[in-house]
Amino acid sequence: MKIKMNGITAALLAAVLAAPASAGKIVMEGSTTVLPIAQKAAEAYMKRSPGAEIVVRGGGSGVGLASLIDGTCGIANASRAIKSSELDKAAKKKRAPKAHMVAMDGLSVIVHPSNGLKGLSLAQIRDIFTGRISNWSKVGGPDMKIVAVSRDSASGTFEAFGELALEKKRVRPDAIVQASNQGVASVVARTPGAIGYVGLGYLSESVKALEVNGIMPSRQTVLSNKYPISRPLFMYTDGVPQGDIKGFIDFVKSAEGQKLAEEEGFVGLR
Amino acid sequence: MRCRKEKLIRYGFTAAAFTALVFLVGIVAVLFTEALPLFRKVRVADFLFGRVWYPTGEPADFGILPLIAGSFWVTLGALLVCVPLGVGSALYLNELAGPKQKAVLKPAVEILAGVPSIVYGFFGMVVIAPLLQDLLGLPIGLCAFTASLILGLMATPTVASVAEDALGFVPRSFREASFALGADRWRTLTKVVIPAAGSGISTAIILGMSRAIGETMTVLMVAGGAAIIPASAFDPVRPMTSAIAAEMGEAPVGGEHYHALFAIALVLFLVTFVFNIAAELISRRFRLKLGHAR
Amino acid sequence: MKGLKFVLAAALAVFSASAAKAGELDLLLDKMVEKGVLNGGEAQEIRIGTREEVKSEISRGANLSLPSWMQVFKFKGDLRLRYQYNHNENKKYSQHRSRYRLRFGADALVTDRFTVSMGLGSGSSTDSRSTNQTMTANFTKKSIWIDYAFADYTATDWLSLAGGRMKGVPFWSPTDMAWDNDINPEGAAARVSYKPDASKEFFLNGGFLLLNEDVAISTDPYMMYGQPGFTLVSADSSLDMKVAAAYYGYGHVRHGNQLSNRPSTSEGYQNANTTATAAQVYEYGYDALHPSLEVNYTLPSQVAIPYLGNIAFVGAFGEYIKNISAPRGRGWIAGVKFGQRAVTEPGQWQLRYSLRRLEKNAVLDCYPDSDFYGGSTGVRGHRATLSVGLARNVTVDSNYFHAKSLSSNRREQLVQADLNFKF
């Protein structure tokens, strides 16, 4: 009898203690593009509210949204809007994914400062990066070989550029591959015939940003949806967020959170 | 008491030695088990000889011929640099250097061997590549040529030290006999010493080749990263090592891409394994030839 | 500012209903940014947020209108109106009849793996082989019978089990020579289906059917069956072939009492199964081997026949049955079909022709197709069927049977014209 009582008491205690410990835990899963914002914001949030515990995982927008629908994560990071097929699946499982836009992702096409071009059309950019145009003379520049600089295939920036500018076509096989936005910028800054793409936050004096379809990339043009190579970044929650999740989302959308997003090279909303 | 302590120590050392074997077996086992699932979906011939490497495409292409070609070109170029430099340094240090020069140059070569590869890569990317770009008027300095140059520099100390050991093993009697027969220094060097140390020098070259083909950080930063079969030495390439290093981080575990990267690692492992066995066999032959048993 | 934003949000909610108004929303937001009412970030939030809200609304509207019982039940059924002309040489008068058949059923999803299916049907009598109801007796009300009621359990994705009164015989047969289409047997059945890839399937059906439960005796007749088979489909799905071989093992049938639903001699048909003259029990057992084959081929390009339309599909089928424990126990059927693979759209048609011969002891005469000489054994003859689609789920079928008794050489000609509605 005594042992049994002890066992029951222990179980009850464990349940009581475990509850608050897990109450503050938020699991975030999804896009690797949104991952840096999520991680930075999670660190900053956990410093402000010590009780909170936030776990951030990657896996891709599709994986994150599927987890949200299944109920295995609290926030789904997505670098695209939810598809209607996913909304239907959510309705069947009695979930209501709600979108919270946390930043805009804009990609700027950059060239060496000595390059005389002012801008290119999206079609020309697509042709250059997919290998159909290999010489600057074909787009109004000097007779020089085009050196395309791209990102490694695991990168969210690579995926974004492929979707928004290249219509999911393959990047030319002879493009130089760099592992980061900074790497692309430094190669383009040193190579007169180079053309590359970086997140808006990585524009600097050492490279020249081109207009795309006549629109110059900037905060204003990205936020007014005029610049073609841009997309919104989301955090999805199940219904209107409550408690810790609400606190976190509010933090990400606050001035401090948006500053973190800008530090990662995205366009903040404030 | 003493017996037990000795036994314990003995077992301790035996275990330490065997861990190397365990690790080796473990690595080989993991390579095989993670690489083979790829071949359920992709034919071995398509993998080894396919000309397009685009693992994130839909549908994905897993042809590693460009990667093999990249490794091959870069290694060949590295050999063209490290063989003359390495064997030349060895010859100089062994035959021609006086004690003062030896005192400076030998440590210098050894320190060069100790420089971390990432420093070489950084140096190559930030200094050598732009320099070559301006000097030779290349569209971009990140290409197979630059990578070969840096790799050659990296492999030189390896080649130099092994070649120097080989030359050192040639008995004095050979040299003295040659001089006694009236040959001059140059003749002795080219017709007696080098052939005698031939196997050792081949081992040095093979080890240098092994080092070059397995080098990751340098080629990742300097070779350009384009998965194409290079048409000229100034085209960017993507050797097998840099493909694995660049893509491993985000290939979803258990997916086709993941297995494909392990398959490349397996190919790389088998190539260096073959090189190392060849080097070992040649060096054994050379030692027996010169009268040193086993 | 926040209050103003709420007002704006409310105003925009009015706009948000129509996706076509999205262009106007953009203009409005641009104007507001220009005038400094909103900054770029807020405008973008509202723009994108509105778009997402619209999408959620549409999806919610589409999905939450289903009450939960609709997510569990699936209803289906069909109505057949038939006109039939019958000339049997055993009877003096030819017979014209109008009949109808109503079948209505529901499948209920009990859990992920369990389904219960039930069906009600019309019928003139308890005859197991017919759900036809003749239009007769001065508009008197007609009965509804329980047609089938069974539970199905999907154990794994290759094994499923069923038990109860099952809809249709739980094994495959391309024609109704040995088993009438309307028979809903009672018992338990298992189906194993293994698909190594999309082009092949290996299946095994097996089960136990209870033929009768007689309180007076302990030896109730039953049937056990096993049917291994396979299906092959060509790479472009144009050619498929299904082959199976069934074995029927009966118990307590030999020397057992006669079973119900034998053909009606008063209607001009015959009871050809050999029975022991004195005790009216079956003389032989009916254990049988029954291989069958069906081949379907969609033609690569349609063949046009003047005045008849296009032939896009041809098929052939055949069965052979042999009672291994009785003499005169063989039967076979062979036939072709052409036209369309399935008649679903208006204007599509399919013509089927078959030739059969069923000796007297090949099967128990309570099972063969009841339209062919009343379902008797010891017959042979032809059958032709033409199906034409009138509209989606509406088809016109016409059947012509020409049957001849093997023993008496008396003939029967049967013509049926049906109008089928599926829902």
Please give a handful of descriptors for the protein shown.
heterotrimer; A: 270 residues; alpha/beta; D-Maltodextrin-Binding Protein, domain 2; two-stranded parallel sheet; 23% strand; elongated; C: 423 residues; mainly beta; Porin; two-stranded antiparallel ribbon; 4 helices; 19 strands; 48% strand
C-alpha geometry of chain B: globular
**Oligomeric nature of the chains:** heterotrimer
Structural class of chain C: mainly beta
The CATH architecture of the largest domain in chain C can be named as Beta Barrel
Fraction in beta strands of chain C: over 45%
Determine the structural class of chain B based on helices, strands and strand pairing: mainly alpha
For the termini of chain B, the CA-CA separation is 37 Å
Specify the CATH architecture of chain B.
Answer: Orthogonal Bundle
Please state the overall shape of chain C, judged from the principal axes of the Cα atoms: elongated
Please explain how this structure is put together:
The complex is a heterotrimer of chains A (270), B (294) and C (423). Chain A is an alpha/beta fold and 270 residues long. Chain A has 2 domains: 25-104 and 232-263, D-Maltodextrin-Binding Protein, domain 2, CATH 3.40.190.10; 108-223, D-Maltodextrin-Binding Protein, domain 2 (3-Layer(aba) Sandwich), CATH 3.40.190.10. Chain A has 10 helices and 11 strands. Chain A has helices spanning 2-23, 35-48, 61-70, 84-92, 122-130, 156-164, 181-190, 219-223, 243-253, 255-263, and strands at 25-30, 53-59, 75-78, 97-111, 119-120, 147-151, 176-178, 194-199, 208-209, 211-212, 230-238. In chain A, helix 6 (156-164) links the parallel strand 6 and strand 7. Chain A is elongated, with a radius of gyration of 23 Å. The model of chain A is unreliable at 1-5 and 9-22 (pLDDT under 50). Chain B is globular, with a radius of gyration of 23 Å. Chain B has a single domain (9-289), classed as MetI-like fold, CATH 1.10.3720.10. Chain B is 77% helix and 1% strand. The mean pLDDT of chain B is 88. With 294 residues, chain B is mostly helical. Chain B has helices spanning 2-35, 38-41, 44-49, 65-96, 99-114, 117-136, 144-169, 172-180, 185-196, 198-214, 217-222, 240-248, 256-289, and strands spanning 53-54, 61-62. Chain C is elongated. Chain C has helices at 2-16, 22-35, 40-63, 68-72; strands at 73-88, 95-109, 114-122, 133-134, 144-156, 159-165, 186-197, 200-210, 222-233, 239-251, 275-276, 281-282, 288-305, 309-323, 330-339, 349-358, 379-391, 394-405, 411-422. In chain C, the strands form 2 sheets. Chain C has a 16-stranded antiparallel beta barrel. Chain C folds into 2 domains: 1-66, no CATH class; 82-96 and 158-422, Porin. The interface between A and B is medium-sized, with 25 and 29 residues.
